[in-house]
Amino acid sequence: MGYFERHADKLGTGGSLFATLCCLGKPAILAFVAAIGAGFLVNDLILLPLLAFSLFVALWGLEKDARCMGRVGRSVWAPRGRC
Known about the structure:
Order of helices and strands: HHH
Oligomer: single chain
Distance between the termini: 20 Å
Shape: elongated
Structural class: mainly alpha
Number of domains: 1
Helix content: 55-70%
Radius of gyration: 16 Å
Protein backbone atom coordinates (compact mmCIF):
# COMPACT_ATOMS: atom_id res chain seq x y z
CA MET A 1 0.00 0.00 0.00
CA GLY A 2 1.48 3.35 -1.08
CA TYR A 3 1.74 6.63 0.76
CA PHE A 4 -1.41 8.08 -0.82
CA GLU A 5 -3.48 5.02 -0.01
CA ARG A 6 -2.31 5.04 3.62
CA HIS A 7 -3.07 8.73 4.12
CA ALA A 8 -6.00 9.34 1.74
CA ASP A 9 -8.53 9.75 4.54
CA LYS A 10 -6.40 12.41 6.25
CA LEU A 11 -5.64 14.27 3.00
CA GLY A 12 -9.28 14.20 1.93
CA THR A 13 -10.47 15.47 5.29
CA GLY A 14 -7.92 18.28 5.25
CA GLY A 15 -8.88 19.29 1.71
CA SER A 16 -12.58 19.32 2.47
CA LEU A 17 -12.00 21.34 5.65
CA PHE A 18 -9.93 23.87 3.68
CA ALA A 19 -12.59 24.16 0.96
CA THR A 20 -15.37 24.53 3.53
CA LEU A 21 -13.56 27.27 5.42
CA CYS A 22 -12.87 29.12 2.16
CA CYS A 23 -16.53 28.83 1.14
CA LEU A 24 -17.58 30.24 4.50
CA GLY A 25 -15.14 33.14 4.05
CA LYS A 26 -13.10 32.73 7.22
CA PRO A 27 -10.68 35.70 7.38
CA ALA A 28 -7.60 33.71 8.41
CA ILE A 29 -7.97 31.24 5.54
CA LEU A 30 -8.74 33.99 3.03
CA ALA A 31 -5.71 36.02 4.20
CA PHE A 32 -3.46 32.95 3.86
CA VAL A 33 -4.77 32.17 0.38
CA ALA A 34 -4.27 35.78 -0.73
CA ALA A 35 -0.78 35.93 0.83
CA ILE A 36 0.48 32.94 -1.13
CA GLY A 37 -0.96 34.35 -4.36
CA ALA A 38 -3.78 31.86 -4.80
CA GLY A 39 -6.66 34.33 -4.58
CA PHE A 40 -8.38 32.64 -7.52
CA LEU A 41 -9.27 29.77 -5.14
CA VAL A 42 -11.80 31.97 -3.35
CA ASN A 43 -14.24 31.55 -6.26
CA ASP A 44 -17.05 29.11 -5.39
CA LEU A 45 -16.93 27.63 -8.89
CA ILE A 46 -13.50 26.24 -7.98
CA LEU A 47 -14.17 25.46 -4.32
CA LEU A 48 -17.31 23.34 -4.73
CA PRO A 49 -15.70 20.75 -7.06
CA LEU A 50 -12.64 20.77 -4.77
CA LEU A 51 -14.92 20.07 -1.81
CA ALA A 52 -16.68 17.22 -3.64
CA PHE A 53 -13.39 15.67 -4.74
CA SER A 54 -11.91 15.97 -1.23
CA LEU A 55 -14.93 14.31 0.32
CA PHE A 56 -14.68 11.49 -2.24
CA VAL A 57 -10.99 10.99 -1.40
CA ALA A 58 -11.78 10.97 2.33
CA LEU A 59 -14.53 8.36 1.94
CA TRP A 60 -12.33 6.25 -0.34
CA GLY A 61 -9.51 6.40 2.20
CA LEU A 62 -11.80 5.43 5.05
CA GLU A 63 -13.03 2.43 3.09
CA LYS A 64 -9.45 1.38 2.22
CA ASP A 65 -8.48 1.60 5.90
CA ALA A 66 -11.52 -0.42 6.96
CA ARG A 67 -10.69 -3.13 4.42
CA CYS A 68 -7.05 -3.16 5.49
CA MET A 69 -8.03 -3.67 9.11
CA GLY A 70 -10.44 -6.47 8.29
CA ARG A 71 -13.72 -4.65 8.80
CA VAL A 72 -15.35 -5.55 5.49
CA GLY A 73 -19.03 -5.53 6.35
CA ARG A 74 -21.22 -2.87 4.86
CA SER A 75 -19.27 -0.12 3.16
CA VAL A 76 -19.96 3.26 1.64
CA TRP A 77 -19.65 2.01 -1.93
CA ALA A 78 -21.46 -1.32 -1.71
CA PRO A 79 -24.32 -1.38 0.81
CA ARG A 80 -24.54 -5.17 0.71
CA GLY A 81 -20.79 -5.66 1.13
CA ARG A 82 -18.34 -6.96 -1.44
CA CYS A 83 -17.08 -10.05 0.36
